[in-house]
Specification:
With about 500 residues, this protein is an alpha/beta fold. The chain is about 35% helix and about 15% strand. The chain is built from 16 helices and 13 strands.
Length: about 500
Amino acid sequence: MRHRTCDNRVAKSSPESPVATRPSALVPDASGSSDAPEPMLDKNETVDEDEAVEPMTLQATPGAASEPEQTPGRMDIVNLICSKRDGHQLKDSEIDWIIDAYVHGAVADEQVAALLMAIFWRGLSVEELSRWTAAIIASGETMDLSGLSRPTVDKHSTGGVGDKVSLILVPLVAACGAAVPQLSGRGLGHTGGTLDKLDAIPGWRSELSNGEILDQLEKIGCVICAAGAGLAPADRKLYALRDVTGTVESIPLIAGSIMSKKIAEGTQSLVLDVKVGSGAFMTERDRASELARTMVRLGRDHGLKVTAVLSVMDVPLGWAVGNALEVAESVEVLSGSQDSPELVELTLALAREMLTLAGINADPAAALRDGTALARYREMVLAQGGDPDAPLPRAPHIDVVSAERAGVLERLDARAVGAAAWRLGAGRARKEDPVSAVAGVVCRVRPGEEVAKGQPLLELHAEEPERFSWARGALEGAVTVGDNRPKPVPVVLEVIK
């Protein structure tokens, strides 16, 4: 029997190739427990769990040549894996075939998993990533928004703790004259999903047809809903595989996943909110900047106007972390509340970038002050079956975390607060897990503020009181009260165009 061999030549990676570095292990929960770790995933990448596939043994046919001849419409996936493993660049036709064959079940999960790991270590060149993204887009349908009377612009966030910006930003930018087609996702791990938050509104629905989306964009100028199953279906399969094979953290694969869905959505322009810090998917600024630049370039390659904003995520954004709690805070901001200055600052910064890309000369701060944005939010909720006047659900049980000494709140770790909210029931570990509308954390004090001994710092909200001790475990070491006032950090770190 002649066994299959691979070309063992090793080529140097292209200097433009964003080669991923080895990821750090997932951060265990703050209590040190390893029996139920919080998955730290990107909320904006959709996860579908595939059925398990029986392991496949690769074996050559007796008497066959070690390298079978390529036939039209069929390629040798093992040779392609080896080629990328050894640092060579994949051809456009090879990338097209890989994506199409995987979507149609012609290539096994374990083979694509091997290819993804090769990409994880070797990266993708600019040309490869552009074609990889195009192939994912071509795997499904694309939306046509060209018939709308308004310029279209969207926003994407890489996810953070207490990130309810979309609930305010989408109607705000629509109130200034743009059409905002926000096709959102659900949360995983310590980051909350926009759809999970809006689900707390009685009657609101996230599933809309393409016709309903277009009609709402034309009449109201904004929609927040789930992406249809026909949009970039290859990405769902690929991310499900990345999720279970340790290849989530690859910058080119993240960029291709995010941008394929946004390009397929049909918007003319896009602002990316790439978060960096302890509560973000990207904890290091240089990697967050690399991801942002990769996505901006990728969008440009596909005719999309893109700006990326790097924003800090070391402290929860605003005072609420949890679904109904974040809706309540968003409505307060839309109603003119000044209790969430960092949230307002970031929202206005993103709104200005979106309006600039859309070619609209308007002041989003004025639309926030005069109630125009609030009115547009109410219209959007009503159009999707929700009742903006209905009371939001409240948690039947509340536990209070108080200051053990007087001083200044020096530190409030975003990731730990997000993990606590997850343990209280506000998030999910798997896509099919239910979430609690009422669970979450309320931050009563912000870093830099003085506190008295015994003063409430955090409120824990849950449906079951049994969850409180588990959530408190996640907060161990996350809150520091001392004598030093922390140095203020700007909300926006960098704008990349």
